[in-house]
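This section describes the prediction task in plain terms. A model, or a person checking by hand, is given the sequence of a single protein chain and must write out its three-dimensional structure as a string of C-alpha cells. No templates, partner chains or ligands are provided. The sample shown here is typical of the held-out split.
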Amino acid sequence: ARAGAAQTIPDAVLLPPADLSVTVDDGLRNVLPGQVVTWILTVDNIGINGLSGVLLTSAQSGSLSHVSWVCDATMGSQCTSSGFNAPNDSVTIASRGYVRYRITGTVGSDARGTVGFSVSAAAPAGYVDVNPANNRSTDTDFVVTDTVFANGFER
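The expected answer:
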C-alpha cells in the first residue's frame, strides 16, 4: 500500500444477542429395568430478545422404550404440545420465558449400564448466543440390576 492511501475496512455486522439455557433432569441417580422414569427438560430464554425458530435437539438412550412427552410454555412462547420419542422441535420463546417438556419413558427389561437423555438448543439464525456453554445438558442414571442396592445404600 502507498503511504497515505486510505484503506477500506468492511463494516462489522452486529447481531442481536440471545441467551438460551437448557436443563434436563429426572431427580434420580439409579433406575431399575422396567421402571417408568420422568424427565423435565427446560429451555429458558434468559436474554432480552424474544426468539422464534430456536432448534431443540435431543437424544435418548437406546434402552428406553414407550417414550412420550408433553410440552407447556410461558405466555408468548410456543412449542409442539406432545409427541413420541426424544423431542426435536422448533420453538418460540419469549424474553425471560421458557418451554418445558415432561418426558416419560420405560427402562428396558434388558437395560444395563446407564440410561438417559441429552439435549441442546441453538439460537435462530440472525442471533448470537452470548453464553453457548449452557445450551447443552445431559442426565444419566445407572441401571441397577441388583435390587438389594437399588436405593444407593450398601447397608
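For orientation: The mean pLDDT is 92.
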